[in-house]
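dumping this here before i forget
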Amino acid sequence: MNKKGFTIVELLTVISILAIISSIVVVSYNAIVENTKTKSYENYELTMKSGAMMYVMDNGYPSGGRITLTTLLNDNRVNYFNNPNSDDKCLSSYVDVIKDENDSSNLSYKICLICPEYKSEGC
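structure:
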C-alpha cells in the first residue's frame, strides 16, 4: 500500500515540539527586555553621577549638598532621561553630595533616580 502524508500522531508531535520551543523563546525574550530596562536605569544613574561630579568640579560644593536633575539639565551636564516604557521624564531625580567628616575634599555621591516605574535603592 502506498502511504502519502503524515499520521495524526506525527502532526501532533511536531505541533507539541513547536509549542514548547515558542514558549521558551517568549520567556527568554521577556527576560531580555526586562534586563535591558534595568541596564537603562543603571546607565542613567552613572550619567547622573558623572554630571554631578563635573558640576562640583566647576561650581564647588552645592548648597544643601543636593544637586537636582533639573540643575544638571540646565547646566548642560546631562540630557533628559526617558522612562524606557514611555516618554515620561525622570525629573524629580537628584544627587546628594556627601562630604567626608575627616577630609572635606573627599566627596561621595548618592544617586536617587526617580522615574514613573523605577526608584533607586535607598531613596
